[in-house]
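Hi R.,

Here's the chain you asked about this morning:
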Amino acid sequence: MWGLRRTYNKSSAMSNQNDEEAQPLVAQQQKPIAATPPVQPKLTCGLPSVLVAGLCYCCASGSMVLLNKHALASFGFTAPTALLCFQCLLAATLVKSCELFGLVKLQPLRKDLVMVWFPVNLIFVGMIGTSFYALKEVGVGMVTVWKNLSNVVTAMGDVFIYKRTFSWQVWGCLGLMLVSAVAGASTDARFTWSGYSWQMANCVFTSAYALYLRSVMDKVAEHTTNKQKMDEFSMVYYNNLLSVPPILLMMWYFGEFKGLLEQEALRNSAFLLVSALGGIIGFAISFSSLWYLSQTTATIYSLVGALNKIPVAIVGLLAFAEPTNPKNLTSIVIGLGAGVLFTQVKSK
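And here is the predicted structure, written out as tokens:
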């Protein structure tokens, strides 16, 4: 019995010792894992930054179209190229001022970089110049629809130049854009061949700018100070500053220098304010687009840009009392809807 009791006590002691050694491990295993605190969204003015950035981008891009339309169509100003020159000078000055205040860093003006970039700049001048002339003669609603046609031209350029392929859904959306643009033009009560010719030229220049920019960005990187692709602010600076000489030639070609200072609109403070705001907001798009892209994805950015055309078209139709009819409105709705759907199917 003593032997059994001794054995029992020994085994009990060992069991108790093992239990005591196991207790910290069990306690460690049973210790609740601290929950990871949810990531708080960044706030700007008490609101989520992504929301504020998106609103700034939408307001800037939409306001620029409406303000330029107001400046070109409401004050009897007959020198759109001169207005374009003023806004380019203003944008270049604002970007340079931001660099002086340390807000951005720009690529310095160097001959080798200018020579590589200048062909891009000529296409840029064609793009913004034709946009101004089209906006002067074509209603905002139809301008927003016809801008979608640049997607058709760009897609064809991707196929023939870069050998890309697209799904049937993408081609279906592009087909809807084409049909809506043709139907809209045929039912436009203010249709003019000159206005729509400018708009078609704008689609070609817009697509050429996008396609050529892809091929030249790597060449540009060889001439930048950091050997990287040119950032957006430097692009804004180069595009607007280098645009001034070609635009001055356009002003001479279209005879806008003659009688420019006698324009009644130049003595209208409202016209001067609208023109300046158009240039400032055009410059602000660079900041708002970069800010919004840093807060969201490229797909959401493209989708919001497409959706933003809808209120711009509606406001344009109402603000400028543009004559329309049910068929024309239907074509606008189809075109804008196809643009939204296009951003969705292309991202898949």
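One quick note: The beta strands are 43-44, 47-48.

Cheers,
M.
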